[in-house]
Fold:
Amino acid sequence: MEIELRKIEPGDNRQMATIIRSCLEEFGANKPGTVYFDPTTDALSELFNVSGSKYFVAVKGAELLGGGGYFLTKKLPPHTCELVKLYVAGSARGIGLGKLLMEKCLSAAKEEGYEQIYLESMPELLPALHLYNKYGFQKIQVALGDSGHGGCSIFMLKSL
Structure:
């Protein structure tokens, strides 16, 4: 059975929130100021139901394997969006799903007219940082925009 990428639906909210929080727990990144405690993590389909933002989930049959998206975060520079909430379930790692989600987010953001994509992360999330570096994200010294996630200490930017 093939993996399908599609936009998030309301029925995916609970499963995706579980994947996100499980990943953060696994890597010891379940701390205040992160999406772990962000109430919007439980309502992703509603959060991304705005112009300029999209969230994709990866599904195989009825199983949700992970997701990722981009968001028009407040106070970002013009033509810039934020790569957000890209997480893959532990059972689905090692098959290239992170790459698949990353490529979908980058191409969709570029198609939407964005020129740059920004992200915030944490040192605990080493596999994610490796993926970001592989795709050409560059570290920057200060946070951009107003994500509300003060628990992040790594900020990166990429031209699309």
